Amino acid sequence: MPANLTPQYREAEQRFREARSSEDKIAALEEMIRLLPKHKGTDHLFADLKRRLSKLRSGKGQKKGSARQRSPYHILPSGAGQAVLIGLPNAGKSAIVAALTSKAVEVAPYPFTTRVPLPAMMPYENAQVELIDTPPVTLAEVDPELVALLRRARLCLLVLDLSDDTLLEAVDGITARLEARRTRLMHHCSEEVDGEDGSVALRTLLVGTHADVAAARENLELLRELVAERFAIHPVNTLAPEDMEALRKAIWEALAVIRIYSQPHGKKADRTSPFYLPRGATVLDFAARLHQDFAENLKSARVWGSALYHGQHVKADHRLQDEDVVELNT
Hints:
Oligomer: single chain
CATH architecture of the largest domain: 3-Layer(aba) Sandwich
Strand content: 15-25%
Distance between the termini: 24 Å
Largest sheet: 7 strands, mixed
């Protein structure tokens, strides 16, 4: 069976070949594994990629005595998905993370408080979303490692200070810098997809901080007039609980994932440990998430939730909905 490798996979493969550091090679291999079509024709290739990745992570082939240092930008995804916060100095990224998580982060009025990416888990009902605070960007430069982190993420939070009269310049400057590195920020409801040139289309929420400041109202109206078609805009006061709860819900919705619970035969589903799948996923997708053998040997499935009645037998192409319970028969 042919592998039918996509242009995006070929692009990641080229980045792997051109990589000089172990960290860049690991990042490229992880993207290749993510983009690799899953079928029998790619089983051997998948195994080879996993072997290479394991070898690189274990540090085999390095000279004795050489220290292995992982880049702080290399953060493995956790929970329902990664949401990376970016913005200019003092935009309010750290204040957002502090308000949405239990992580103790440094929030200060001086610029460049955050020096390395800091992950923290944001609870949403029984789910966990990984927020990553990052060092501030400038209109002159965006760190290539930050771009790589963004390209692996599921969501971007573009954070702006609504009291700053140059916020429109910030939007245009940051998006232009990212587009120069083939990373396009888009409305989270957009149907844009990754490009054949290796570009990545990243779901984005525009979060405006300091919404309680008097100067913010006029800037917010201008922002809505000029960029509302490009981004969903969420003005917040990070000290107002109702604002942060609304943002928490918006982040969850923008991730476009669903929670699915597995129910083994004769047992109850564990609703404390959901599986996360992209919105629109099918029973077959869920089976493949558990194990490729389940997908290949799937005979039938029962669904509680989106089915017409509890425990209805459904076909493999049945589209699942958030918090469905699924029992697979193989």
